[in-house]
């Protein structure tokens, strides 16, 4: 089969690189239809270091002779497909050959394929395994295109890829089943794409008999929960005749759970069973369940009936919508979907499909939510249902689509919904306008009669006239507002009375947008306190947003962490990436860049699982910002470009501004102030290209430093006065010290000294080594150029140590270079491992993962970077350390760990 190339080819290349370098053995396994034979053939085509031999059943006696052909100059690749078909003596000979390759250093590599839906033969059980996972959507798309031999409608392609669940053989079977008209989208798809007939075709003769019913009962139990395994105790209670017998080869057990070795075989066992047998299995599971199982007994009973069943549907609906229900959103979605199938009334079905879509969204199942929405938004549905569907569609687009389209969906929902729900829809439109960088639309939606949105990133902004130059009246009004704001921002001695947090958030956010900080602080403080008193993830996210606007990063971090814990506890996969986004931004604002990086890497993985590309773009922006501090230019470029790709396609002005800022800060750290000023100028100066209204002010200190260092301080004077208004509002703890630093950069020599000292004094009031070290560095440079060398050395050494504490390698090198220029060598760094100390932080991370046995692809997934980036870093690791193979890297790491080294 052709088409599924990118990920599999990279995996093959990595495997061959390891085998060719070190020699070795791999047992390649995967479920039926995963392409084991194709993988083996592709590996044979790519192996050009020496001869390739394919051995089949009955040729075990040739193993020794074949192995003798391997030489140091021409290593051998030995391929054995379907080794499970070899008899036991032949498998034993194969195992001896594998041991010889692994233990004696013979210049040969051995690839053996076995199926994953059965136990690995005892003779091969101890060999290292490479499991072929499902195709990614990106790899499945060209497979569909090649197999269809013509145009495929994108929506149809997505349906096919989702239905196949990454199995290439099943995907090909589905494509063959459809007509050209169906593939092109001119005719409707079949109601059920994956039928028992299709699954039986792919599974072939691999489906065993199931006389005791254990396989079908396990499949029915897992189908109800939507999980990959089932409760063993429940299954055995429902199928008592199987409790004493051996476990079928298709199943495995562990920690009280039964699981199919292959997802395809699990689907095939259930789909190919006679309908009566399936109903009997579900009925047995319903009777074996206990009250503690909640919705599950009702779900099983629903699959034991035929035709419409209003009473069963009503019971399922009550259970799934009960506020006291503790079932995760994924299980509620299944219950509501099944209730809709059993409901004869069209309006009732539409309402249930909408409710199921809402739970699918919470569960992070975007594709399922969209399919359910299509069932709910027909013309026959009442306006309230169609409005609810548009509201939910807007939420989906806001997380993974053009935000202007999301805004239009929200506005359409507002026209269709009754007043309370319409208010929520218009506020969601404001959320979309915020993401798009449209402050006028935000203010329109935040009118006093409406409820505020939960913003994806709540950062305060300042009001500047359209000309971009503040007037005297603006400045005096802002100073008065700021004075009142600082007073109002002080946490009250007694907790504020309970009110309406939605109204408080609306009032506080609207006041911020209007630069009325004196009116914003009190309602936003009530929002923060209200959220932190509970455990609702949405309220906690709102609390984090309000805390960021107040500049209370401690409360923002606390609310973000609690929101993350609450989302995980409730199974709300859609809320996890958002909670991690708030938490990562709060860590950045607190100057804890490495923690921000950790949370953003996790957020990127959860956003990918939940299908939230817009949220992923924000996590990429955080990772770019963190990498710009650590001086990893290639990572800054990769994450900034990833953020910008989505930002440009979906209109995410906020993520785009952060990505450009990260790239400029990387230029500044690398000693390229002219390039940094050129990047930042359009973002912070008046004009159509100015950055997002809530973010551009954060980049001003970098622009001022870049402009001054490039010899163009006059370009920064106007934005410093705008920044002064921002600093006065009290929303950013770092802003007052940054403002003094900016003024020092532009000041005459007789006043700059005092401004730098005052800036350092203000840094004492806030956390964050990085910003303080930047001020120390700039002050040290200023002192050195005035030949005040003793004072300069003190400041520059403090800067170097501060940068090293926060991992800002390139910035620390700047400080060290300034020390040398002033005639002093920097103080000796603490003793470090002689080899590993030469690696960058990212190289160290990659070296650690590789030493633990991870492939390049696994490292890339763990660090949320591309495989190409891992390849690049790993080559540099080998070059820096003078190594030739992964084996040598493992030995080096183990040796230095024994002597107390730390990666």
From TrEMBL:
- Segments of skewed composition (Low complexity): 471-491
This protein's superkingdom?
Bacteria
Region named Disordered: 466-506
- Keywords on this record? DNA-binding
Q: Which Pfam families match?
A: GerE
Where the record annotates domain HTH luxR-type, the positions are: 832-897
Q: Does the keyword DNA-binding apply?
A: yes
UniProt xrefs under Gene3D superfamilies: Tetratricopeptide repeat domain, Winged helix-like DNA-binding domain superfamily/Winged helix DNA-binding domain
Kindly list any coiled-coil regions of this protein.
none
Matches recorded under InterPro entries: P-loop_NTPase (IPR027417), Sig_transdc_resp-reg_C-effctor (IPR016032), TPR-like_helical_dom_sf (IPR011990), Tscrpt_reg_LuxR_C (IPR000792), WalR-like (IPR039420), WH-like_DNA-bd_sf (IPR036388)
Protein's recorded name: Helix-turn-helix transcriptional regulator
Q: Which organism is it from?
A: Streptomyces lusitanus
Taxonomic lineage per UniProt?
A: Bacteria, Bacillati, Actinomycetota, Actinomycetes, Kitasatosporales
